[in-house]
Design goal:
The complex is a heterodimer of chains A (150) and B (279). Chain A has helices at 5-10, 19-26, 109-118, 120-145; strands spanning 29-34, 39-41, 49-55, 57-64, 68-76, 80-81, 95-98, 102-108. Chain A is an alpha+beta fold and 150 residues long. Chain A is globular. Chain B is an alpha/beta fold. In chain B, a hairpin with a 4-residue loop joins strand 1 (12-21) and strand 2 (26-33). The longest helix of chain B is centred in the middle third of the chain and has 13 residues, at 124-136. The chains are: A alpha+beta (150), B alpha/beta (279). At the A-B interface, strand 4, strand 5 and helix 4 of A face strand 10, strand 11 and helix 6 of B.
């Protein structure tokens, strides 16, 4: 059976993680492909997966009546999609759509959270990475809100 | 330039040869002296004072190729009375030109370095001459990267040129916008975040940064985080100017006159003033 540990270890989000933890995360992971235009998830869907992009590009979109979808961020290989899965009610707050053929690792959120509860060290390691990602997203959001080019 | 030999405050009449709409409010004008002649030499990053007779005068960066000084090119956004009047000029109309003024980008000190050119919004206009200079002497430099951001795809200037530059194998171009509607296949995000994608050796890299203040502040912060030396980060500052000669003090920033000591400064020299909100 193919193990995903080497692929997980190579992803920047999980870099430096203990092999024991990578093994646990590997048990919650699966490879997924999305063709251009395909949705990874839509707003209000249940947040069942958290994605680590290995190849391709994903547009994070907000759908606005009359304007249609507005792309507010592009994510690409080495980045993670879905930064709200840690927070209740575990629903997506936006759409994510593949701009081109995209290969990713899907991490089963429920199973991952269960394992984090069982192994607080793993939970802390993931939470550190998650907090960093949130901090980056927060800074990006502030800069975009600030309309720097105005 | 002829006017400088006589009276530095006396503009030389120039005629509009060509006018290109870049975005809904931004235009690129190609100018030539009314009396004919070869124009005047300038260095990348310098600016001219453009005078609309009876309306007023504004400083505008030169955005053309420094190796082709016979074509004087300016890109102008219509934001005030004078710039609106400049943008309204048609082929054959006349305006006054004084210059060139200011300290240029240090491209002549950059051979041997990786060079990051980082621009936001209309900030691409003042760095475009530096890009021309670098590409014309490409073998002298290490990695060359352009990071350019705008509010939306419709706000990107020099789109044709950006696409030509992207086609080169020796120049990496990263373009991003803050938001886009369906159909945009490029990047969406902010300029500072793209710095992680650029390839450079922090010890041997020079960064030329031009754009709105907020963008420059966060960009410089990111460059410093990535190990660039402050003295190798150059920023182009913008201030209201009147004389362009360092006489009137309109453009004063602490101990500096932006028109004469700048507009291009090494970041370490202006850092304290750059971050000071009161000035």
């Amino acid at each position: 059976m193919e193990t995903l540990e080497p692929v997980l270890a190579a992803h920047p989000f999980l870099q430096g993680l203990d092999p024991r933890h990578l093994k646990i995360i590997g048990e919650c992971a699966s490879k997924v492909n999305f063709s251009a235009g395909e949705f990874l998830f839509r707003e209000q869907d249940e947040a069942t997966n958290f994605y680590l992009i290995n190849h391709g590009r994903v547009a994070v979109e907000i759908f606005r009546a009359r304007r249609g979808p507005v792309n507010v961020q592009t994510l690409r290989e080495g980045e993670a999609v879905g930064w709200l899965w840690f927070g209740k009610p575990y629903h997506w707050h936006f759409d994510a759509r593949a701009v081109q053929l995209t290969r990713a690792l899907a991490l089963d959120v429920k199973s991952l959270m269960q394992r984090c509860d069982q192994d607080p060290q793993l939970g802390y390691e993931l939470m550190k990475r998650y907090a960093h990602m949130l901090a980056v997203q927060f800074r990006v959001a502030i800069l975009q809100l600030g309309d720097m080019y105005g | 330039m002829c006017s400088q030999l006589t009276d530095p405050m006396l503009p030389t009449p120039y005629q509009v040869l060509k006018r290109v709409r870049e975005t809904k409010d931004t235009f690129t004008l190609t100018l030539a002296p009314v009396k004919g002649g070869q124009g005047f030499p300038f260095a990348p990053g310098q600016f001219n004072m453009l005078y609309i007779f009876g309306v007023g005068e504004v400083p505008i960066s030169i955005s053309g190729d420094p190796d082709r000084p016979e074509k004087l090119v300016h890109t102008v956004r219509a934001v005030g009375a004078v710039s609106r009047a400049i943008c309204g000029l048609k082929k054959g109309d006349t305006l006054g030109v004084r210059g060139p003024y200011g300290v240029p980008w240090p491209v002549k000190a950059a051979p041997g370095y990786d060079v990051l050119v980082i621009a936001g919004g209309l900030g691409l206009a003042p760095v475009r001459p530096a890009v021309y200079h670098l590409l014309a002497r490409r073998p002298e430099y290490g990695n060359l990267e352009l990071i350019y951001g705008a509010r939306t795809p419709e706000d990107l200037v020099y789109r044709r040129e950006l696409s030509l530059w992207r086609g080169r194998f020796d120049f990496r171009v990263h373009v991003t916008v803050d938001a886009a509607r369906n159909g945009w296949r490029g990047n969406v995000g902010v300029v500072p975040n793209l710095i992680a994608r650029a390839r450079f050796d922090p010890e041997q890299t020079m960064a030329l940064v031009c754009g709105p203040g907020v963008m420059m502040r966060f960009t410089v912060q990111e460059l410093v985080n990535r190990g660039l030396k402050m003295e190798n980060i150059y920023v182009s500052l913008e201030r209201n100017m009147k004389c362009g000669l360092g006489l009137c003090g309109h453009c004063q920033l602490g101990p500096f006159f932006v028109c004469k000591d700048g507009p291009v400064f090494p970041y370490d020299r202006v850092r304290d003033w750059f971050l000071m909100r009161e000035v």
